[in-house]
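Morning F.,

Quick status update on the modeling queue. The single chain you submitted on Monday has been processed. Sequence for confirmation:
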Amino acid sequence: MIMLKEITSIEQLIQCLGIKRTLKGFQLLPCTIRLTLSDENYFFKRMQLYEDVAKIAGTSAGCVEHNLRTAIERCWYSGNRTFLLSISPYPLSKCPSNGEFLEIMVSYCQKMGLR
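Structure tokens below.
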């Protein structure tokens, strides 16, 4: 397991959350996070974000949304929920939505200088 101080990439961050590389959402999350890091307006245009990620990944926006949600649920229910709660800037009492999860990831990446 990667130690928290050794996280040097978005992919490692996702692995620390217990999201396995075998999930399609694992492959889509870095792109989604990086696009939002480059343009925070995506927070308000989530469908556009899904469409842009879908173009890059060669899939549909609906598949992007679904695969991200599945990865987030995997983190919450069988991954490293404790780590997710520790990096969240606000308390979570239930599985975060795609938007909430993205906000947590972008906030942490900005704080830690991950790109």
